[in-house]
């Protein structure tokens, strides 16, 4: 998974990651665990030698290795739960996530340099997106619980990585369609799932909606894409009851793609209700509001209302248009109803093999 020249160089310089060292205890460089790291292409730099590029089969094995590596136990969670000191050689979830994300960028660079297209490229990029969407939700929730910025996770960089991977995957789908027209092969069965993930990740974007509506009819009319279009339509129409009802029914990975927008949608819902239910003696039951917004507990729903300037008294919310405070969207500490409770008892690698090409 790592070119011999790079492995030798990083071994001499002491730049091998702890996840690339042989257990137990870690310390000895292991060529079977080493993975090619990302190196930004420089202007004027000669193209890499063929020996530095991994063919599609090796790239696929590399991505599967990284998906398996992503969910190994980490010290940080054990330490938080049990108060125990970190075991020697163990890696925190933040460090593990940074390692996997960097190596996936290197995979995407190899795909670009070799000009891989169609089905081989799609198989790699789909699996990379499974990890990126899962990691985006997981790291964001960890940050909310720890109430501090993660040391090894850059949300802006991660968002750019997801968008670039989506763009590359959608190009691969178009190339695969052209190949199918020439050869008469069946379409990729996973395309509809990932086109739906694209629309959910870019919820409310007119450009993403326009691109989705240009897809072939058999993809556009698939159950996954019809659901994503319905959720996007409910958001644009400000039909929040329908939006959250549909969001509850989504599987785990689409819920991860949608998760980043939940705070904004809840903020818009409270703003709308503050106008629609604004009356001196009007009281809206807090349990009903928490159920409508698909929040896990009443206390968190009350905190959300107070953060937006709305009074909560005797288990009810007092909506007043004049008192609403339009602050930045707040992300819930937990989203068991909409995301976390949907995770099947399978590993990330098993999930990717189930839904990818």
TrEMBL record:
Pfam families, sorted: SAC3_GANP
Bias-annotated ranges (Basic and acidic residues): 29-39
Superkingdom assignment: Eukaryota
UniProt-listed InterPro entries: SAC3/GANP/THP3, SAC3/GANP/THP3_conserved
GO CC aspect terms: centrosome; nucleus; spindle
UniProt-listed PANTHER family: 80 KDA MCM3-ASSOCIATED PROTEIN, SAC3 DOMAIN-CONTAINING PROTEIN 1
Protein name, as recorded: SAC3 domain-containing protein 1
Originating organism: Pogona vitticeps (central bearded dragon)
